[in-house]
Structure formats: C-alpha cells, structure tokens
Predict the structure.
Amino acid sequence: MNPLILTIILMTVFLGTMIVMASSHWLMIWIGFEMNLLAIIPILMKKYNPRAMEASTKYFLTQATASMLLMMAIIINLMHSGQWTITKVFNPTASIIMTLALAMKLGLTPFHFWVPEVTQGISLTSGLILLTWQKLAPMSILYQISPSINLNILLTMAVLSILVGGWGGLNQTQLRKIMAYSSIAHMGWMTAILVYNPTLTMLNMLIYIMMTLTMFMLFIHSSSTTTLSLSHTWNKAPLITTLILITLLSMGGLPPLSGFMPKWMIIQELTKNSSIILPTLMAIMALLNLYFYTRLTYSTSLTMFPSTNNMKMKWQFETKQITLLPPLIIASSLLLPLTPMLSILD
Amino acid sequence: MLKIIIPTIMLMPLTWLSKKNMIWINTTTYSLLISLISLSLLNQPNNNSLNFSLMFFSDPLSAPLLVLTTWLLPLMLMASQHHLSKEPLIRKKLYITMLAMLQTFLIMTFTATELISFYILFEATLVPTLIIITRWGNQTERLNAGLYFLFYTLVGSLPLLVALISIQNLTGSLNFLLIQYWNQALPDSWSNIFLWLACMMAFMVKMPLYGLHLWLPKAHVEAPIAGSMVLAAILLKLGGYGMLRITMMLNPQTNFMAYPFLMLSLWGMIMTSSICLRQTDLKSLIAYSSVSHMALVIVAVLIQTPWSYMGATALMIAHGLTSSMLFCLANSNYERTHSRTMILARGLQTLLPLMAAWWLLASLTNLALPPSINLIGELFVVMSSFSWSNITIILMGANITITALYSLYMLITTQRGKYTHHINSIKPSFTRENALMALHMTPLLLLSLNPKIILGFTY
C-alpha cells in the first residue's frame, strides 16, 4: 500500500479511538467508533484475497450492528435523561443494550463468533492491530459507564467468555486462532472485575496488550502462522524460542511472570467482595488456556521437532525488524515485583 | 537472609560468564560455599523464630529444610555432569541457570513470612522444574509427565490462592509471625469446610496424597537426575512444610476434616509399598517409595501432636537425603546401561564393590534402620499415630515390613548374585560418583549423632 495512504488510514484509526476515549458527548463517541471501523477495513484487507475479504466483511457487519445497538442505547438514554453527556446511563434498558453492544465490539461470549474467523483471515500485523488497539475504545466506554452496568449480564458474559476462550482454543493449531481465543478469555477476565474495581480492568488491559504485542512480534519475526512453522524457529532463531516460552507461560498466568499479576489482583478484588466460587471457577478455567499455551511451548522450545536435512541451509531472508521487542519482553515477564505500584493507575 | 539469596541469584551470571572448562567447577564450589553459609541458620537460640526482616524468617522447621536445599544444589550439579557432557555449552549453561533459578525460588519459599509470597514462590518453582523435565528428560513420556506435574499442582493450588486471600480479608494480615498468635477457632460452617479443603488440597497434591499421586511416578521417572533429585528431596517437602504452616490456622476443623485424608494416607502407604515389590523400573520403585514415606508425613501432620510434628520434620529431612541418594545410585546404573530395568544390571557388587557399599547404606537407611534419622522419624510417627488410634499399629507395622521387603529386593536384585554377562564391560565408578554418595551419606549418618536439629519446632 502506498505509504502516504497507509499513514492516513492508520492515523484515522488512531484518531477514531482517541475521539472515543476523549469525548463527553455520546454522539462524538459513536462517530469515533464509526471512524475507527471504516478506517480499519482497508487495514484488514491489506492482503487482497477472498479470505481477507470475508474476514473484513464479517468484522464490518458485527461492528456496524454493535454501533447501531450503541446508538439505540444512546437514544434511549437521551429520551430518559434529556442530555448527551456521558456520565452514567440513566435507564436500565439503555444500560443493558449498551453493555451488549460493547460486548459485541469486544468479542465477549455470546458474541465471540467473529473473533477467530476474522483474526484467521487477515495478516499477522493486521491481527495485531485488531486484537490490541481495537479493544481500547470499547473498554474505555465500559470503564466510563461501569457504575451503571447490570452486574448479572456482565458477569455471565465474562465467565462464559473465559470458558469459551479456554475450550475453543484447545483444538487449534493455527496461531492466529489461538491468539483470538486467548483474547476472548482475557476480555472475560477484564470485564469480570469491571464493576468492582475498574482500575484492575485497566491493569489487565495493559498487561494483556503488552503480552499480545510480544507474541505477535515474535510470530511476525519468524513469519509463522501455524504451530508447525513455529516449531522450526529453533533452527533459525534459537533465542526466539526461549522468548516464546517465557511469554506464553506469562500469558497462561504462571507466577512469577507478570501475567500472574492481573489474575492475582482480580481474584483478590473479587474475594474481597465476598464472591468466592466465582474467582475459583475463573482461575481453574484459565488453566485450559494454560494447556494449549504449554502445548505450543512443547512444540516450539521444549522439544526439537524433527526437520529435514536442508532446513539449516534454508535461504536466510533479511531479518525482519522487530520494534521494541526487548522492553516488551521485560514488560511481559518481569513486572510481578512491581505490583505495589498499582496505585499509579488510579 | 540476603546473604544466601543474593549469592544464589548471582550463580546465574557466574555460569554465563565462566569459561568452558570452568563452569562445573565454579558453580559447584560456590554453591557449596552457599550451603556452608546456610548452616549458620541452624543456630536457633530461643524457642521462637529468627526474624531477618519483614519478609524473611527462619524457624526450627524451615532451617533444616533450607540447609537441605542448599546442600543439594552442589550435589545436583555434580550428578548432572555426565549426561550433559555431550551438549553444547549454551545448553549446559541453560541447565545450570534453571537449577540456580529453582534454588532461588526454593530458598525464598522456605523463608517467606507472608503467606501470599509463599504461594507465589511455591508456584514459581513449577516453571524451572517443568523446563528441566520436558527439555532434558530422555523419553517421549516426559511431555505427558510435565503436563501431569504442572496441571495436578496448579488445579490443587488455585483454590489455595482464593483461600489465602479470603483469610487475609478475615484476619487483616497473612504474615505468618502474626498468625501464629491469632489462635482463634475457625467457626463451624460449610464455607469453612471448603476453606479447609482449599487450603490443604494444594499441599496434598504436592506431597503427594495417595489418590492424587499419579503425577509423581511419571515426573520422577522422566526427569533427568538433577530433576529427580530436587523433586524427591525438596519439592515434596514443600507440601509438607506448607501443611505444617497452614494447619496452624485451620483448627478445629482439622479434627474431623482430616479423617478422609488420614484413611487415604494410611491405606496408600501400604498400597504404594506393595506396588514397589512389583516394579521392574528402578526409578519407578524409588518414586513409589517416596509416595509411601510421604504418606507417613501426611499422617503425622494431620494428627497434630508434638511428637508427630517432630517425626514429620525428621522424616522429611531423612527421606530427602535418602531418596536423593537412591536416585543418584539409580542414575549411575542408567548412565552405564541406558536402561532403568532393574534385572538388566544385576550382581554389581562383583564389578563395583564400593558402589555396592553405597547401595547397602542407602537401602538400609531407606528401610529405617536404627540409629539413622529415618528411624527416628518413622518411630515418632508410629508412636504418635498409635496414641491417636491403637489400630494404626497394624498398618504401620505392615508398612515397615513391606518397606524393608522392597528395599532389600532392590538391593539384592541390583547388587547380589551372579552378574549379567553383558555388563562386564561397564566403566568403573568415577570419583565424582563416590564423592556424590559420600556427600549424601555423611550428613545422614552424622545427624543421627545429634538429631535435635532436625526435630522441628516442637522439640
């Protein structure tokens, strides 16, 4: 794509999210979402093949529906409160519709069906933008309306998302689908704590974005989209295998890596609010996620898959530049001792 | 405490910066020096704990376990030299780094004051162990073994996290030094029963309890020698240590909640000892014998009398040294014949007489011969369980007999009789191996002269 056009489109995506996050008028928020959606469609279709077209069509349809639901909720809110300012949502119906709309945008169960298919159909870089940047805008709206969200609906969606994210990823070998199901599960964790302590939602979002960024950067570096091609990295860039191991275990939430921090804080916050069974259930279901991450590490770092003799002589293409990988690795594995610094997120 | 933790952390840069011919020498020497420093912790002057800081403390229960942990690292490094000799330098350094990382986490676990910090470090020990088992194990089954190990422990310990946080809400602090003075009876309710279960299951899986022990034979058999040593000697004791610490807060539910686990342990120790009699795989035999000994520790911890606590602590230390030594002996066989089948290498006494002496001593301590500390541990446990209920003497007596049976079976099969004809060209014992066995046996025998240092905090 022409670099100038690409810049303009990426800037529009960026601007769309910024408008969503910075506005206090509901209409501007909706405009921001639409701007974001329209600008990201060409990004998703960078590789012009039918799979990508199908993926971007699905994405457009679900996000547009969600935006319309959001608009309906905004209008109901306007009807009952007479003003467009985003403070709290004044009507329970509007709140429910808004929650469902934002859940559709995020990919929470039962609206998760688009996430694996869209992520699989697009290139790795577009998938990166889809799974990290696109989550920021809906999450910021959820954060702002968090006092008025119906707890039952949100918790049901959260727990179901963790379940679906865990079980759905078990049968996958395609890396993009694995990352998609991991995103569904992490969104579940984030929304579970939203009503009790939204700061932890932000913390989880931050750590999740760092870990997902790291994973995608590592995949882009080795140009691998399947488990099989990932298992060849020991041959070409052995250090990447160790980094993949550490980051995957961090995503699974194993102490002492930083992926444990959001889970620990969320469990702590939920327990303080006297729900004991819920965090236990969530924690045990997160182990399903850990299973397929561990399986991925088995094929990548912890065993050496047999390879043909001319693997080593394979033509070494120019090394792809990975931006910011060292700080990202540190951030996604070593942040656990910094947990007391949580208060800066308030 | 930092005088032990920082040198252990610095073992990692030491390996990466050492020259090719100095890695083993450097790391073994410095880890031996660290273990000598840790011996100073055994000096527990008063009847309470040595508080080093807000975060670390050591008391008569954790000091012997700590000394055992630091003593084992040089032994693990010595034992791993042979099977790593053909690997490239970076992989050797990675292996030693994994061992040093595991050691750091273990030291911090045994001295942690705050129970959540104990939990995080308890879980953190899983990662290096998983990497050691799956990356450096020898058979295909090691992948399955790693998964079983990881998931059994995690499913048991995630409820522990929730339980610890809810206890923190209840009492305001999880600092162990405060909790031991809290001494309030836990109210009788269904949720407190689940709290008890949540707290104990993690340690039951780790010990392991008889019904949840499936990960142990897999993990012990598939791990390389250092992995087997650290698993058998230390990681199982993490479970015992955790149980000893956490039962302090769980009265009076323990009076009735302990019954199912006591029954499982009492029956399990007989079952696993009997399975040992039918094993063909040497490492598997030693693994099941670990389950049997640890079942005794579970019985001791759950009946909660002063003598049983003394027995549990002594048994943990004694079993750590003994089973680690047995794994080293099995490994010396494995390195020569590349098979773990017991009957494949028989009659070794004729070929390797000094090693036969070590086999004899190890088997004798495994069957708890007087005056070794194994006997002191087992005797205290048997006596206290007899005072808890007279009938247990039958089961305990049967267990001691069967333990003697399989230990002698192992000894006689590998050492006595005519040697198999295909092993008469095996290499003689290395000095390194003899030194390894001596370094295992010497503390074990010397401790029988002064067992009070390993008798724990109820002495």
In short: Chain B has a mean pLDDT of 91. Residues 306-337 of chain B form the longest helix (32 residues). The beta strands of chain B are 50-51, 57-58. The interface with chain A takes residues 105, 119-121, 123-124, 126-127, 130-131, 134-135, 143, 146-147, 150-151, 154-155, 158-159, 161-162, 165-166, 169, 191, 194, 198 of chain B (CB under 8 Å).
